[in-house]
Structure formats: C-alpha cells, structure tokens
Hints:
alpha+beta
Amino acid sequence: xxxxxxxxxxxxxxxxxxxxxxxxxxxxxxxxxxxxxxxxxxxxxxxxxxxxxxxxxxxxxxxxxxxxxxxxxxxxxxxxxxxxxxxxxxxxxxxxxxxxxxxxxxxxxxxxxxxxxxxxxxxxxxxxxxxxxxxxxxxxxxxxxxxxxxxxxxxxxxxxxxxxxxxxx
Length: 169
C-alpha cells in the first residue's frame, strides 16, 4: 500500500476528483477543483491530493485566510474540506493528509485551525481531530455568520460547525 501526497494539478485532477466523488454518490463539480487550483496558484490555499497505489483517494485544503472570524482575527490558517473516498477510509489516508496539512502550516505559524460538523455524519472526523489534539476554540457553535446562543432554533446541516485549534510543535 503506497500512499502519496502531492499538490493539486490543474490538468487532470478536477475531472478525476469530480468523477470519483460522483461514483460514490456525492456531487462535486470539476469547477470546484479548478477554483481550488486557481486559489492555490494565487497563494490563498494549498490543496493536497492523496493517491493510493496511484489512484485518487482523497484531498484536503489549507486556507491561509479562513472565513471564520476568530481564525481571521488571530491569523490562524484553516485545514478545510478533508475528504477521503469511502472505499479508502480507515487506511491511514486522512491521517497522512492531516500530517501534510499540518506540516505546510508549520512552515508559517504554530497554530492550525479546523472546523467540524456536529452531527453523526462527521463522527469519524470528530474522532480523528480529537485524537490529533485539536480542542474547541471555546467560542461555541457557528453557523454562516454568527455564533449560536442558548434558545436559538436551527436546522442542523453541514453549515453548523464547531471550530477547533491545535498548537503545532
């Protein structure tokens, strides 16, 4: 089992990644990955791609300027959109992607941030991040443009996020 991590490539990756997710029932447009590549070229993000034995298996982003206000205010880069194809999960690919994302961040700063959804679809990610030493930033749950407060009624979806940070050694 040979896991390789490399930067997103604009020539072939958008179509391959989009098709791989479509094959497992997730709609991801090639244009999303073209945008990631453009932002990577502009220095706004780093997109790391994992291949297992030469076949696309997953990816993760490092956003140098997070949309999350607390990370913006503190200059904390955000690890974002970690995705490993279902058939390749539990093989160390997510861990390798996280290792590489943290190494990229460590070149510039000593703190990494990450957001995670709060319902069961995100259970594996929640456990992975906790095992890696990420802790809640203490600001509570965030959705779109505000922190949720006691008594708020919301629809639980992918936009209800708990943000975590980790000091990198």
